[in-house]
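Are you able to produce any protein sequence you like plus the matching backbone structure tokens because I've never seen that pairing?
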Amino acid sequence: MAWIASLLILGMFYFYFENSLQARNNPNRQLQIAAGADLVLKRSRDGHYIFPGTINGQPVTFLLDTGATLVSVPAGLAGELGLKAGAYQQSITANGTVATRATRLDALAFGPFTLSGVPASINPGMAGDQILLGMSVLKHLEFTQRGDTLILRALSPNGKTL
């Protein structure tokens, strides 16, 4: 009987610490939308801004990357997101030059923001399930960083904040 109680206690500790680790690694699992439809993101433990969203209605995890020209999708996710591989192109990444395929995202959404017809690339060199949210999306947003918080705000078509 004591070993069953020990297993239950260990299980409770596991779930508590697992939840704590997930909150540290992805503090934006539940997005915070501030007044005026600003999106407030917290920096993850590894220094990145990671947050949930959708591509073509499918749930995904974005990693904000101001160094990426386009949204970059791991090739392993392209099929389930309904992406069509277009022309070959070269992408210069932190790991060197990679042959990628051009694509276009019919719908991309996160927090209060929704975009359509977003230029992107399918990258066979990317592992995992995080999608790099590059400047093809970020150019539509104003962002302000204060400490470990990043605030995103939509820009109007003329480049001024809404």
